[in-house]
Specification:
The protein is an all-alpha fold and about 120 residues long. The protein is about 80% helix and about 0% strand.
């Protein structure tokens, strides 16, 4: 007898494949972004390029983290497991975003020539 919260194996397999395909598509997209960003005019302001590069790096890290979350959720055993996984993700992601905001602020400040 199955519990009311049990996910059928076929649905779990489908979800795993979907997450893997989305991750692969995202990685291809990010490869194109990195290739394109390397082709910008060399006369561009270095500070703007640094800020842009940092923002892309953070976006990539955050989306990768979301894919990792999706993969973990696909393997959750029950509702309590889902809640634990989401709680840990939120805690980790809040710390990451806080660090990213600080780092991006430092890069913007450096690019603008403002001293602390």
């Amino acid at each position: 007898m199955t519990t009311p919260y049990e996910v059928p194996a076929e649905m779990r397999d489908f979800a795993e494949r979907s997450v893997a395909q989305a991750r692969k598509a995202f990685e291809g997209f990010m490869g194109a972004v990195h290739k394109t960003s390397g082709q910008f005019d060399t006369s561009a302001v270095a500070g703007v390029k640094d800020v842009s590069s940092k923002a892309v790096t953070f976006a990539e890290a955050n989306v990768t983290s979301a894919f990792d979350l999706a993969e973990k959720l696909v393997h959750a055993k029950d509702v309590q497991d889902v809640i634990a996984i989401q709680t840990e993700y939120l805690k980790t992601q809040m710390a990451a975003v806080e660090a990213q905001v600080k780092e991006l602020g430092d890069v913007v400040q450096k690019a603008s020539g403002v001293k602390k």
